[in-house]
Design goal:
Structural class: alpha/beta
Order of helices and strands: HHHEHEHEHEHHEHHEHHEHEH
Helix content: 25-40%
Oligomer: single chain
Strand content: 5-15%
Radius of gyration: 18 Å
Distance between the termini: 37 Å
Amino acid sequence: FFLGTLQPDRAMLSTLSLTLSYQVGVPSGRAAIATRSAGGPAMMARTPLMAGNWKMNTDLDEAVALAKAVSAEADKASGVDVAVCVPSPFLIPVKEALAGGKVGLGAQDCHWEDAGAFTGAISTSMIKSVGSDYVLAGHSERRAVFGDSDADVNKKVLKILAGGLKAILCIGELKEERESGETFNVCATQLSEGLAGVDAAMMKDIVIAYEPVWAIGTGLTATPEVAQETHAYIRSWFVENYSQEVADAVVIQYGGSVNDNNVDDLMACADIDGALVGGASLKADSFGRIVNYVKK
């Protein structure tokens, strides 16, 4: 794949204040946000995905109780897909707790080898065999803490797809990259390298999760305008590197301190198709409110 020739307004990015980037719901005075209601038929056809990433949290009893509560909340929602990405020891009991409901099951990571001497790793065949639907790939914590490179992420993405699972590919910039106006370049590189070898037909099993690293677990969240701007760029990248059809169909989640107070404004943006939720997904009432967001 080549990087698209579409270039961001560099001056615009470099002059985005961090106050703007960190506050939710505060207009910047620039052009109005492209809202979901303003989108065409292709935008409206995308079904949002609300996915909870439990990270390294819960014990067995807590995981089962949370799964049951999330399932009950999801049953109230319409026009939205829901999933939970749980610690690997709890995949089977959580799957059982979700039985009969509409919530999909996801793993938080995988290895790209089929089997062998890889202590502590889990394969996609293992994940598939216990009934999972999704696997995260390239989460910033896997990149930063465990050293996953773009090449590693790509091998995982290809293995997830080959195993008949859906990949949630996580991308996003560091705080200093946002400040220096490199957000679009970072996203383009992570997309180009993470999706190497993924053709248009395979894209139906790919979800993109844009997570500005500076917003993950910090309580800081991009304004709807800043988030929409980046999501629109990501969608334009798919136009340049795949096709308009793929760009119109791909689900692009926002992640980074999404909560029950900011979800409605974020979901009103035309190119935000759901959320990858961390801390708030550990509370059934908060995640339930996110799943049952108010459509504007």
